[in-house]
Amino acid sequence: MSMNTILLFDIGNTHIALGAYRGDDLVSTWRITTRVEGTPDEYAVTLRALLREKNANGIAFDGCAIASSVPPLISTFVELCEKHLHLKPIVVGAGVKTGLNIRTDSPREVGADRIANAVAAKKLYGVPAIVIDFSPLATIFDALNDAGDYIGTAIAPGVATSAEALFAHAAQLPRVELIAPATKSPIGKNTISALQAGLVYGYVALVEGMIARIKKELPRARVIGTGEMVNLIARETNALDVVDEGLTLKGLKLIYEMNV
């Protein structure tokens, strides 16, 4: 494997994760806020600033790849790669080799980040698997069977989405920090601990319950957690076998390698 340097973009609804690999080493990761109206030039300025901070300003990338769950930003980042990095990016989607069989009603509906996660889980942790991606907006449970096929998914509101909905509609409830109550008890003695117990332990119960249901169909599945909210949940349950926050970028790198 030559020591190529590649830049990866995982574009989500709230944040964009960027990763720079040199060979097999993930040398840097960054997370920036998703702005659908951001232009290629604006994102290029941000990218340069991030690279400069890591003393990597003059770095020449050999390739880049994009997984986006925000369709309008695909063309923005393709232009960023072509105009500012002089690279033609690999965009996860139709016509890109992934080595993954998608056995759902309409495979084209499966998001690029889901595919990247599944590719990484299959290669790095084995199958069958349940891959749970905890983003602030949604928590997505993806299922891979014994053959390594992607067989479907479940989508729940994210823990931050649930909290926001509660605070938005209940005038008397204060915004609280999304952490388990200090008492570690599910029985709150005041409004703050009651909210934290319900939001955090209630969400853990949702996750454990979903895992139990999916395991009825995939009894030997290994459970892999990823996404920016994963640690909040992983701290409160033993139901996750692996926590890998970099899963999507790892999968994106594997897909990049299959297509160059």
Write up this protein:
- The structure is a single chain.
- The protein has 2 domains: 5-91, ATPase, nucleotide binding domain (Nucleotidyltransferase, domain 5, 2-Layer Sandwich); 107-250, Nucleotidyltransferase, domain 5.
- It has 7 helices and 10 strands.
- The chain has helices at 40-53, 72-84, 112-125, 159-169, 191-217, 230-234, 247-259, and strands spanning 5-11, 15-22, 25-33, 63-68, 90-91, 129-134, 138-144, 150-157, 222-226, 242-243.
- Strands 3-2-1-4-5 form a 5-stranded mixed beta sheet, with helices on both faces. A 5-stranded mixed beta sheet has the order 8-7-6-9-10, sandwiched between helices.
- Helix 1 packs across helix 2 and helix 3 crosses helix 7.
- The longest helix is centred in the last third of the chain and has 27 residues, at 191-217.
